[in-house]
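Hello again,

I reread your note about wanting to compare the complex against the isolated chains. To keep things tidy I'm splitting this into two emails, and this first one only covers the full assembly. Below are the input lines as submitted, including protein chains and any nucleic acid or small-molecule components. They are followed by the predicted structure of everything together. The single-chain runs will come separately.
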Amino acid sequence: MVNNKKIYFDYAATTPVHDDVLRAMMPYFQQDFGNPSSIHAWGQEAEGAIEKSRSQIAHFLHVEESEIIFTGCGTESDNLALKGVALARRKTTGAYKILISPVEHHAVFHTAQQLRDVFGFEMDFVSVNKYGLVDVDELAKKIDSKTAIVSIIYGNNEIGTINPIKQIGECCRDHNVVFHTDAVQAAAHLAIDVVDENIDLLSIGAHKFYGPKGVGALYCRKNISMIPVITGGKQERGLRGGTHNVPYIVGMAEAINFISRERSNNSDRYIELRDFLIEGVISNIKKTRLTGHPTNRLPNHASFVFQGVDGNLLLILLDQAGFACSSGSACKTGNPEPSEVLNAIGLSKDWALGSLRVTLGLFTTREQIEQFIKILPNTVLQATK
Ligand SMILES: *Cc1c(COP(=O)(O)O)cnc(C)c1O
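Full-complex prediction:
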């Protein structure tokens, strides 16, 4: 760790690369540096590594190798899913509507906005309740023959809530519409079975689960057509041009192996620590609310709002006290506006501007949380407007 005195509570933002992952990646920088598209031995070696990685990731998601597309990050996976499917569906069926929730990550939200503003699609929202859970009955009513794609986040990065993905998937299948889910947070913690959950497309990004930054994957069910966003060579069956980032892809697969091995043990530990943290924060600070669902949430994720508190100032004060936390959304300095997600779950501005996200991971201990609970009340007081 960079600084042993500092405590890292921001595992939803990113995680350190696991030792096994780094070790698996190293040979592919210098020794086995070949281009997977080359015919010769160097190329074959690299291609072998890519296909082995693809197979490991496919196995993890219970899908076929040919249904995995490597991308440059979780954001790119979301872009390829939404743009790729929306453009292909419009071309073949004339569908022109994008249906998302108001609690999507910006990688989905801003992509849908661009499809509206630049590409001429319509964008519509299905509402969420106060926990950020999508209303499946409303979803059923909003889908029609002109809906090109539905995209709903699996585990929320900001408020931790886990959506009823299986019901959403069934609803989309019943209405014959393509369903994408952003599982960039969820994949690290939940056992996902895309077939059982009726998921057509699913995004992951390696750096959220102890893999390297700058590599991701998109699962795309066979027979769903997409138009590539990055055009170029014939890599990834022509759906994503560009020479493969071999070491990072190998690293992502190794990180998948690591989490699938350790996930169930870690989950129980995280849930216990998370609930200890939530209880400590709620009972020690007045005018506090947990955001997101109290139990149906990511195992490592706790998020709060404090009334009348300057959330950005709180983060700075916590950092000075040695704790790296987040507000949950991209901080806006200057004239801060509450995040779209906190708006969507019905929080007023004086609550929503005082948000705090604390996310746990491999190196989190109970002692760290005890220390945090001890200093937090006074820090929140200092950040009160
Ligand atoms: C981090 C994150 C992304 C973006 O992934 P990158 O690999 O950083 O581009 C997308 N969606 C969610 C829910 C995330 O948490």
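For quick reference: The mean pLDDT is 96.

B.
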